[in-house]
Write a structure and sequence with these properties.
By secondary structure, this protein is an alpha+beta fold. It contains 29 helices and 15 strands. A hairpin with a 2-residue loop joins strand 4 and strand 5. Belongs to the cytochrome P450 family.
Length: 653
């Protein structure tokens, strides 16, 4: 009979430890020696050939794309990054891996992202994906996206208004409280644009998806309601008067916390590891944060369904969708798709906006060229889709930003079909996981030139278009590509154009490298920039949309009129003194009036020109508090004097 005592355990502990170690080694060594995957010929890290632990560890560290990129530079286009996973860094491989009709399906990686139900992002079944895509694809067509424009304009306008107010406070030497992320120093505003980009993106997608924003921009606060009992709330969807406990969470902070690497790490390891890892202290917090995000989606859906509306938002599209039997989406499926909308529609836009602003601030020459294009083609106020759609340099800047900072930079895993597949002459056995890393493809020197690490939008006018179309894939390619890519590009065009039409950005630290943290999405950790005076500010307290640009246009017109007036007064004064010196003695008052008007016009003209040409805010203050009222009085006075003078001279004659 077997018995276990403390003494025997102490005696046998070395034996038990040695046995366990040998078993672990054999579990990983034997499959490698047998080479059941037939991948031994592919190079890669030694540990990665034996165990999924290497890829799981690298993924959890938050820099998977950079690490895999370095491996490709070391080993070449084919790298083994797990016992059954080959990374292929060749742009021509993208249609082979992700294209139509290749038979490669999503891997078990996506199972880690399943929430209340399988969604359009997590489904691995081709037929299920086709059904879901049919329901919502027309919602993201180019025609449908244009219908969202007024809502996008509303929140971009709110953002600019909030930034103008912060600038006003910064001028007075004020700074935000701890955690607000803005500082007034030396008459300039320094702020972290990442939180604001998130506020904007969340309010836009909240309105487009659920008919109401989260209110983050106007509150200047990271906060959203979360259902505490998600199952109870889902059961009461659409029931009038149903009330459930909820709480506010910092959703942006939650998205950037442990949940970001939690899911992608779970996806990188075998399924049987996940149940164990989720219960470890390292991953427990990430799991709780992910549950909170699900609760946010549940709360948003519940609120929308309790307040019926004729608004044709994204949720109404989902409700109208039917499966193959004519049945509508269930509450669990509806919630899963809502969460996909929230994350994919907000986090990605915010990350891209922040990254593009960073690159523009770091590259003043590019920012200056963009300012010129915007000034030449855009009117005052928020940029319209019609105006920005043909701005070539703006689109090149967006493309260059997405190239260097792809929101999803890692290779999205697919499973080679039964019978295997050939990729550029290399045989990939059936069942092998394959991926094409976007981060590396976007740095292919054969396509984008030798300076691939530089932010240079001009390359988009120089590179071979055929090669670029194969390599550039910020939204992936094929039938599983991002369904919202039209909306994403549409938002970025309006956001970047509107912000850069109005502001000029400078990095607080000119040598700062954009720090990022990568889970499934590649996120900037922050981007602290300085905003010199808004380019179009004339009136300090005018925050309504378009007022600033209108004032600027008015200022240039007034400046032109003043210039003409000053020149004419000067000519008249000199001509009278030279040709009619005796008149100076008889009509001293007239000459004093002319001289006074000339000096006043010249002084106000100088103020206006300084403000218009140099964007000097102090000149604008003088213009507001001193110059403009006196100019109006001066003009009226001149009219009266001129009329009286002409009448008098006419009577004398």
């Amino acid at each position: 009979m077997f018995s276990l005592t403390l003494e025997s355990l102490h005696t046998d502990l070395p034996t038990i430890t040695a046995t366990a170690t040998v078993l672990v080694v054999l579990v990983h060594l034997v499959p490698y020696l047998i080479d059941s995957h037939r991948l031994r010929s592919y190079p890669g890290p030694l540990v990665a050939k034996f165990s999924d632990a290497w890829l799981g560890y690298v993924t959890h560290q938050g820099h998977r794309s950079e690490v895999v990129h370095d491996l490709h530079r070391k080993y070449g286009p084919f790298v083994r990054i797990a016992p059954n996973h080959v990374s292929v860094a060749v742009s021509d491989a993208q249609p082979m891996v992700y294209g139509h009709g290749n038979g490669a399906l999503k891997s078990s990686f996506y199972d880690a992202f399943i929430t209340t139900s399988i969604g359009i992002f997590t489904t691995r079944d081709r037929q299920t994906h086709t059904r879901k895509r049919k329901i919502i694809s027309h919602t993201f067509s180019q025609k449908s996206v244009l219908e969202f424009e007024p809502h996008v304009h509303r929140y971009v306008g709110q953002l600019l208004g909030q930034w103008d107010k912060l600038y006003e406070k910064a001028l007075k030497g004020m700074s935000g409280e701890e955690g607000e992320g803005w500082t007034g120093r030396d008459g300039r505003l320094w702020l972290d644009c990442l939180p604001w980009a998130n506020y904007l993106a969340f309010d836009i997608i909240g309105d487009l998806a659920f008919g109401a924003p989260f209110g983050m921009i106007m509150a200047a606060k990271d906060s959203a309601p979360v259902a505490q009992d998600t199952h109870a709330v889902m059961k009461s969807y659409g029931q009038a008067g149903a009330k459930h406990a909820s709480k506010e969470i910092e959703v942006i902070k939650t998205l950037g916390g442990p949940s970001e690497t939690f899911l992608v790490t779970m996806g990188a390891v075998p399924g049987w590891w996940r149940a164990v890892l989720k219960r470890t202290p390292m991953f427990w917090k990430g799991g709780k944060d992910f549950d909170a995000l699900v609760g946010m989606a549940v709360a948003a859906v519940s609120k929308r369904l309790q307040e019926p509306t004729d608004r044709n938002d994204l949720l109404s599209k989902l409700q109208a969708g039917k499966d193959e039997d004519g049945n509508p989406m269930g509450r669990e499926e509806l919630t899963a798709e809502a969460l996909t909308f929230l994350i994919a529609g907000s986090d990605t836009t915010a990350n891209s906006t922040c990254a593009i602003i960073y690159y523009l601030a770091r590259t003043p020459s590019v920012q200056e060229k963009l300012h010129k294009e915007l000034d030449e083609h855009l009117e005052s106020g928020i940029a319209t889709a019609e105006r920005v759609k043909n701005l070539a340099y703006l689109q090149a800047i967006i493309n260059e930003g997405l190239r260097l900072h792809s929101t999803v930079a890692m290779g999205l895993p697919r499973v080679a079909p039964e019978g295997g597949m050939s990729i550029l002459g290399n045989y990939i056995p059936g069942g092998t996981v394959i991926s094409v890393p976007t981060y590396t493809i976007h740095r292919d020197q054969a396509v984008f030139g030798d300076d691939v690490e530089e932010f240079r939008p001009e390359r988009w006018f120089e590179c071979d278009s055929a090669g670029v179309s194969k390599a550039f894939s910020p939204f992936s390619v094929g039938p599983r590509a991002c369904i919202g890519r039209n909306l994403a590009n549409f938002e970025l065009q309006i956001i970047i154009a509107s912000i850069l039409k109005r502001y000029h950005f400078v990095l607080e630290n000119p040598d700062e490298v954009l720090k990022v943290q990568e889970g499934l999405l590649r996120k900037p950790i922050g981007c602290r920039v300085d905003q010199p005076p808004p380019k179009t500010v004339f009136f300090r307290d005018a925050y309504l949309l378009g007022v600033f640009s209108a004032c600027y246009d008015a200022g240039t017109r007034v400046g032109s009129a003043l210039l003409l007036q000053t020149v004419l007064l000067g000519i008249e004064l000199v001509w009278r003194v030279v040709t009619r010196p005796e008149e100076c003695l008889r009509e001293v008052a007239l000459y004093v009036w002319i001289f006074t008007d000339f000096v006043a016009s010249a002084m106000i003209l100088a103020v206006v020109l300084l403000g218009v040409l140099c964007w000097d805010y102090d000149c604008m203050v003088i213009w507001l508090d001193f110059g403009y009222p006196r100019l109006c009085g001066l003009v009226e006075c001149m009219k009266r004097r001129s009329s009286a003078y002409l009448v008098r001279r006419f009577d004398e004659q």
